[in-house]
Amino acid sequence: MFSTKDKENHSKRRRIIADRYANSNVMREGSLHGLQERSENFMKKCSELPDQEMDVYVWLLYEDIMREVSFGGNLAKRLLGLYSPALGMIINSGIFGKPSGAPLSEKLVLNGVKKGGVADFTLVSRLQEGKFGLGPIDIASECMDHMIAGIETTGDALCFLMWQISQPGYEKIQERLRAEFNENQGVSFEQLPYLEAVVKEGLRRFPSIPMSFPRCVPVGGRNIDGYWLPEGTVVSCQPYSMHRMDETAFPDPEAFDPERWLEEEGLAERNRLFFAFSNGGRACIGRHLATAEMKILLRDIYSKYRTLPAESMTADMSVDDQIFTSRPKDQKCLLKFVAWE
Ligand code: HEM
After folding, report:
1. 265 FRET partner, CA 20 to 30 A, in 72, 132, 138, 187?
2. Whose CA is nearest to atom 7 of ligand 1?
3. What burial letters (b/e) apply to 206-229, b meaning 16+ CB within 10 Å?
4. Range of 310's domain?
5. Is a pLDDT exceeding 80 seen at residue 102?
């Protein structure tokens, strides 16, 4: 789907897949169970830390297969190959280091597809429906792209967010999260306004893909904001600017302030400008899944622990621009997990 430039074919493929990523499907017991299990593994790891310290950058992208996919910077490279084939070919040729194919993950996905017997709510089961006429390579390639699109983005967003709220001066955010969790035990993570505000502010301030989402001006050209753009012109828009430019909607835009999402006044405009998942026909299809994953993990962590930067943490956490995606510059984020008293 990612690489389908033609609008009609793209929409066709997207229509096949869309229901698997609908919030109603994400909120099904089977999908939630998988997310909860992932969070429980993370919590188990937290409870076993000998010195309470964890490199959350690594653990948010954990499991060997995930690491292989993510650490190779594959999303950035694949997108680069798609958006700028000439530049992509040079970068992926190995001139800038070992090319990072993902043979292990590719094999795993392909074998999984061939084996069959997958749960009925999954993407694979949908793609395997005979009426779509898709072969195993096509299905595996679609799944592989979704894996890559989902892991790095969600992991990086969580990592930046947790680092931010672990800084001195931000303890109140953690305390307020904990209070909301305590007061709402048994309530769905979807119904927690402060958690929603924290996640949204994290994605506003640290969008996993801060850079341009290119689009082609359609046949006939278009007039945009008084400028005539001939058909085929590549235009783009990026979350980095959308989340900062309008200081009426986002006063003090560099400040990390979840409260701004709780104010009724101007909320519709803030939501309109929120661009971390893009908008329109090519917007992130995994938005509900990513949000659910982030919320479940944050709820589990901050119900039990407060986090602060580990004493030995000297790595550079500034945002490293990976052409399309972003990640912490030194790819390391050591946090200390201290159980609440
Ligand atoms: C915080 C996490 C995430 C962020 C910030 C994010 C962001 C984005 C953005 C901005 C796009 C549009 C790119 C463009 O317009 O060119 C996109 C597309 C996409 N995302 Fe996500 N994403 C996240 C998580 C996920 C997850 C968990 C999945 C699935 C497992 C996923 C699957 C996809 C797919 C398949 C597309 C292509 C959609 C299409 O071409 O129609 N994403 N994502």
Report:
1. 187
2. 277
3. bbbbbbbbebebeeeeeeeeeeee
4. 7-339
5. no
